[in-house]
Design a protein that fits this description.
Layout lengths: L7 E5 L3 H12 L3 E5 L7 H8 L15 E3 L3 H5 L4 E4 L6 H8 L8 E4 L12 H6 L4 H4 L3 E4 L4 H5 L4 E7 L2 H11 L4 E5 L3 H23 L4 H21 L10 H12 L4 H10 L4 H8 L4 H15 L5 H11 L4 H10 L2
Parallel strand pairs: 1-2, 1-4, 2-3, 4-5, 5-6, 7-8
Antiparallel strand pairs: 6-7
């Protein structure tokens, strides 16, 4: 792989995180083909014309080395690494469609942070089934506290990176790292991905707490319980419990739960202030991953026989059948 700053890579998904990853890679000197799934038209045309993505990354000028590409085959052909940043509900289809056109040594990089809704598989496990055995070993995953807007303005960010092939992990690090992005190796891809899912769920919880005006004492309790639930599920899934307290778990939860730029936290805060679910989603204006992730997280926990009462409380709060402060306080008093 060419790591001298002029590699050819592809990013699949032009949402906020996919776009900011394309920006990082392009500013590192690489030629970046950016593709977007058919359910979100218009973004690539704007990037091609204006070098901006106002819908997902407003106010940010994008490098000319980002090349919008509507044809998936052309996007991935010859790419040394392909970064998957599509919504979890379309990962399987995109992986199926892209797989025949990937080069033998192409590294697949999962930056999706989610569970497959139908199968409750981790994204990396879903991808393994859709590529040949040799390439399955090349899959690398990245997760951690990385608010897209802050990355876009070059604020220092550190994330975990995991994969079965340490050589491929190092190759991806060489593509991505620069003066403000650091990738720290984690040997536990399962724990890394579970942490990336759980943080979306529990960021909503902390938003709810802010919305109803809870003080730090109560929020600290909610955060502690959230970490216990994430770490217990990581262990049940065969990961290492301590991974939940690394950047991909605790770090990602802190970043997502307390940042005013976090969609999940803002959604929870709107709900806590009495705005209904649909209006809250409209007010956020982008996909709130935690809404679907909550159901998936609970279903996976049930499958693994792990108790996640705080995640269940979150689902009840989103249902809107009772007052949210009442729901939270009832939960806290039962601890």
């Amino acid at each position: 792989m060419n790591t001298s700053g002029n590699a050819t890579v592809a990013v699949l998904g032009a949402g906020s995180f996919g776009t900011v990853f394309a920006k990082i890679l392009a500013e590192n000197g690489h030629s970046v083909r950016l593709w977007n799934w058919a359910g979100d038209p218009g973004v690539l045309a704007e990037i091609e014309k204006n070098h901006t993505n106002k819908k997902y990354l407003p106010g940010v000028k994008l490098p000319k080395k980002i090349i919008p590409e509507g044809d998936l085959r052309k996007a991935v052909a010859g790419a040394e690494a392909v970064f998957f940043a599509v919504p979890s509900n379309v990962v399987a289809r995109v992986a199926d469609d892209a797989s025949p056109f990937l080069e033998k040594n192409t590294i697949i990089v999962d930056i999706c942070k989610g569970l497959i809704p139908d199968s409750l598989e981790l994204v990396s496990a879903c991808m393994v089934k859709r590529v040949d055995f040799a390439r399955a070993k090349s899959i690398v995953a990245i997760a951690g506290p990385a608010i897209a807007k802050q990355l876009a303005t070059k604020k220092f960010t550190a994330m975990n990176i995991a994969g079965k092939s340490r050589a491929n992990v190092e190759r991806v690090r060489a593509l991505v790292e620069n003066e403000y992005v650091r990738l720290i190796y984690c040997p536990d891809i399962v724990g890394l991905e579970i942490g990336g899912v759980g943080k979306n769920v529990y960021a909503i919880v902390l938003g709810l707490a802010d919305g109803v005006g809870l003080d730090l004492n109560a929020k600290a309790v909610l955060l502690t319980v959230a970490m216990k639930e994430i770490s217990n599920l990581v262990k049940a899934m065969g990961g290492k419990k301590e991974t939940a307290y690394d950047l991909a778990g605790f770090g990602d939860l802190i970043g997502t739960a307390f940042s005013p730029d976090s969609r999940n936290r803002r959604f929870g805060e709107y709900l806590g202030k009495g705005i209904g679910k649909e209006k809250a989603l409209t007010k956020v204006g982008q996909v709130v991953e935690g809404v679907s992730a909550t159901d998936c997280f609970i279903a996976l926990a049930e499958k693994q026989r792990v108790q996640v009462p705080l995640a269940r409380m979150t689902r009840e709060a989103m249902a809107g059948n009772r007052g949210i402060k009442e729901i939270i306080m009832e939960f806290l008093r039962k601890l």
